[in-house]
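This entry is retained here.
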Amino acid sequence: MAEGKITARFIIQMAGAPKEHIERTIRAYIEKIKDEYDDIKVISEEYSDAEKQENDKLWDIFVELEAEFGSMGRIMEFCIDYMPSSVEILSPAEFVLKANEFSNFLNDIQLKLHQVDMAIKNLSAENKVLEKNALTLVKNMIMVELKKDALDLKTLAKEAGMPEDHMLKFLNALKKEGKIVEENGLYMRPAKQKNEKDKDKQGK
């Protein structure tokens, strides 16, 4: 190892499907690292066999990457950019980290944390909008179905393509809002209920 060089071993993991895709993707990812970090020397790269996750359709794979860096700062940048699951410094056994390198590392960490925090907040806001739109869509679908006739839970769940326990939550919400009523296991619009009672009276 040349003087001043630092050798480290990293483990980078991925999960995905199908198997062939994740095997190609992790190799392309390592090639991307080599292109972006042209000042590091990749000593070795050993890929694991892709293994299927238990009770899941995804496949796990990892690569053990050994590389030589010109400074500790570059290793820190690498870890921030590519977030390996494991890092091991192989040599030297001891080194001195300069104050400016450590300051730069802390600033990079802060920047990355702020970016992650902002991404999470944006994703949370987007999810709330999507959830609201999905709730509105399902409720509208229920109201359209009940415009035709009174229906039971099983039929409504089948029409929506969702489990009965999920459909029941929407129905309970609509009942609470006063938009539908339930009678003898059948769900209907209030006007529908009134018309059916009137027909029963006329029949008598």
